[in-house]
């Protein structure tokens, strides 16, 4: 298959919104959730996140602790991690708290079906150019390669990874993504190559040794392999079905990143909010990767 086998409309759904709390009618909300659940990127070209003069001065890679990839904020305990300069900590915390509140408003207004079910919020301030990881880390961490998200240390038992992104580049630079094929096609393509044998003992050991925060399920075992199989297949990276997206400053976009193959090709300065969502809270849980994989393998995976 080639790049031309996917059209722009099959991977993206655009919506005009300028405010994070803009009211949405039922039809529009249903369509927005349906698009996300089909694996599309929900693109909000006019939804900007405004920064004050002081906040704009935070946009420099030197602010990030060299041991970390990004600055992160846990809204549940108010903790910020990854700031290299202590005097900037209060401003970063205020920014990320405000960003988190905006993301909650967006879910409540645009994706109301998920409002009561989303949990474990974590948001990040990403200050490095995305190419930093392509050049300096292993292929597994290289997010310029098409992949679906799977967290090695945080098994999620099929819960959905809902991510909201906003380009805050002050110099007008787009963030460039590639987006890939629908999850059922992806799964059928890669499943034959994955090791479908699952060792409860090795999962127990990894948890016992602190490698994982909880016992890794069969589902998580497969999703991690899928992530790796995609990134290590250079023919798929080059010739697999994909569409390039240009995401300008002042725009936001949303996807289920455990489902939608994505790669960040270029860009710098972004805000990102992650929520977890139980698959049962979806309008159509059949689209969840857990249910797709269970249907294909005809066995329970958690
Ligand atoms: Fe990712």
* Shape verdict: globular
Strand order of the largest sheet: 1-2-9-6-11-5-3-4
Continuous helix count: 10
Strand content: 15-25%
Considering DSSP H and I runs of 4 or more, what fraction of the residues is helical? Answer: 25-40%
Q: Give a short account of the largest sheet.
A: 8 strands, mixed
Bound molecules: fe (ii) ion
Could you tell me how far the N terminus lies from the C terminus, measured between alpha carbons in angstroms?
32 Å
How many beta-strand segments?
11
Average pLDDT, rounded to a whole number, is 94
Helix/strand/pairing category: alpha+beta
Uncertain residue ranges: none
Q: What series of H and E elements makes up the topology? A: HEHEHEEHEHEEHHHHEEEEH
- The gyration radius over C-alpha positions equals 19 Å
Quick tags:
302 residues; alpha+beta; eight-stranded mixed sheet; three-stranded antiparallel sheet; 10 helices; 11 strands; 20% strand; globular; binds fe (ii) ion
Quick overview:
The protein is of the alpha+beta class and 302 residues long. Helix content is 31%, strand content 20%. The site of fe (ii) ion has 5 residues, from loops.
Task: Characterise the protein shown here.
Strands 1-2-9-6-11-5-3-4 form an eight-stranded mixed β-sheet. A three-stranded antiparallel β-sheet has the order 8-7-10, with no helix packed on it. The protein has helices spanning 8-11, 26-37, 53-56, 89-110, 131-136, 183-190, 200-208, 218-232, 234-239, 289-297, and strands at residues 12-14, 41-44, 71-74, 79-81, 119-126, 160-167, 175-180, 242-247, 252-256, 262-266, 270-277. It starts with 7 loop residues before the first helix and ends in a 5-residue tail after the last helix. With 302 residues, the protein is α+β, with helices and mostly antiparallel strands. The mean pLDDT is 94. Helix 6 (183-190) crosses helix 10. The protein binds fe (ii) ion. The site of fe (ii) ion (FE2) has 5 residues, from loops. Fe (ii) ion is lined by residues 143, 147, 149, 257, 262.
């Amino acid at each position: 298959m080639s790049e031309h086998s996917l059209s722009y409309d099959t991977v993206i759904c655009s919506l005009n919104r300028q405010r994070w709390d803009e009211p949405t009618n039922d039809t529009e909300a249903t369509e927005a959730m349906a698009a996300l659940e089909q694996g599309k990127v929900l693109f909000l070209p006019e939804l900007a996140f405004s920064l004050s003069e002081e906040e704009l001065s935070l946009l420099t890679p030197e602010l990030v602790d060299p041991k970390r990839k990004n600055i992160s904020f846990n809204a549940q305990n108010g903790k910020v991690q990854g700031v290299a300069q202590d005097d900037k900590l209060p401003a970063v915390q205020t920014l990320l708290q405000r960003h988190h509140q905006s993301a909650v408003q967006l879910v409540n207004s645009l994706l109301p079906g998920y409002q009561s079910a989303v949990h474990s919020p974590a948001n990040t301030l990403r200050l490095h150019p995305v190419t930093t990881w392509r050049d300096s880390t292993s292929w597994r961490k290289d997010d310029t390669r098409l992949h679906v998200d799977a967290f090695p240390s945080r098994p999620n038992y099929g819960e959905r990874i809902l991510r909201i992104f906003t380009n805050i580049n002050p110099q007008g630079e787009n963030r460039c993504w590639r987006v890939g094929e629908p999850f059922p096609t992806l799964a059928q393509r890669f499943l034959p190559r994955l090791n479908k044998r699952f060792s409860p003992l090795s999962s127990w050991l990894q948890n016992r040794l602190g490698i994982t925060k909880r016992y890794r399920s069969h589902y998580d075992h497969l999703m991690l392999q899928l992530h790796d199989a995609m990134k290590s297949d250079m023919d798929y990276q080059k010739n697999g079905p994909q569409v390039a997206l240009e995401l300008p400053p002042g725009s936001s976009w949303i996807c289920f990143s455990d489902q939608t193959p994505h790669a960040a090709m270029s860009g710098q300065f972004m805000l990102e909010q992650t929520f977890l969502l139980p698959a049962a809270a979806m309008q159509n849980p059949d689209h969840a990767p857990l249910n797709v994989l269970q249907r294909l393998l005809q066995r329970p995976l958690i």
